[in-house]
Specification:
253 residues, alpha/beta, five-stranded mixed sheet
Amino acid sequence: MFRNLFQKRRVKATTPDGAVPPGQRVYAVGDIHGRLDLLEALLQQIDADDATRPPAETTLLFLGDLIDRGPESAQVVERLRRLRATGANIRLLLGNHEEVYLLALSGDIEALRFFARIGGKETILSYGIAPADYDRYDYPELMAAFQASVPESHIDFIRAFEDLIVMGDYAFVHAGVRPESPLDTQVTKDLRWIRQGFLDHADPLERIIVHGHTIAEEVEWGVHRIGIDTGAYRTDRLTALALENDQRWLIQT
């Protein structure tokens, strides 16, 4: 059953060379899914790595799905919200799980039902709702409790997340892109949800796509993409892809 969590694909290390703009260093972080412990560990590792290198404009770039499945989603959101408030150079992409979270909090009962099925229960509990109350509430009651428990600062923070970030030869998205469409015409649904048609695309694209969303046992190096969702909430392995000039390296918990 555990093995079924992972996508089984043969992806060779054929990713073409690429570079970020001179003077910039980027740490792109995969799906956290409520694992505050791994986030804290990875941030320490990134700080240590950054300190050993020459001065640069360092960006922390989170690929989305901060929440759900793991036990501390609210705490992950708050940690990154506060980190950004300190002036740290952080950019965040909105994942499909954040999309459903916002829909549920807007009062959409069907979105709340779906949210609960894809790991949202753990997010709701992380906001202080007792497990016994979660189990006894009907959906309207759960909606009211959930809306009351989430601070407006979290909603505002997540609403401001981006969908696509381009830096040099790389484009960062949560899920992927529609290969036949230029980057500037991509639709939000694909950027947050796509798998079929993107993962197994066989040719290079206008940018190297760095993404999360689809779990793999190891980082996937494709001819058009680098997938860095290594299933942190189940594997204890949270991955960051570091980029500087034409160099790239991995940092993992």
